[in-house]
Write a structure and sequence with these properties.
Elements lengths: L4 H6 E4 L3 H8 L2 E6 L5 H12 L3 E9 L3 E4 L2 E4 L3 E8 L12
Antiparallel strand pairs: 1-2, 2-6, 3-6, 4-5
Length: 98
């Protein structure tokens, strides 16, 4: 499968948090993805870009919080995350670049 430019539009960046690190021990990797991306698109993009086999894709949308920026009220944007479970023997090292 060849890498298409739209694959890089689907996957925005990897998420490296404590929760994501715990998920990686179970063979899952967490990515921030485009809000319009579907699970089949995410699966195809991860398989093409990283050259791994994907077992399952779970997604979640985190609603933006109301915050204050320099004393003025504002709102963070909504974020869609994809928890990508990999087949046995496949790994992605998110700490290194592409």
């Amino acid at each position: 499968m060849s890498v298409k430019p739209e694959h890089y539009d689907v996957i925005v960046k990897p998420i490296i948090t404590e929760k994501a690190t715990l998920a990686s021990e179970a063979g899952a990797v967490v990515f921030k993805v485009a809000k319009t991306a579907t699970k089949p698109q995410i699966k195809e993009a991860v398989e093409a870009v990283f050259g791994v086999k994907v077992k399952a894709v779970n997604t979640t949308i985190t609603k933006g919080k109301a915050k204050k920026f320099r004393g003025r009220p504002g709102e963070r944007s909504d974020v869609k995350k994809a928890y990508v479970t990999l087949e046995e023997g496949n790994t992605i090292d998110v700490s290194s670049g592409l």
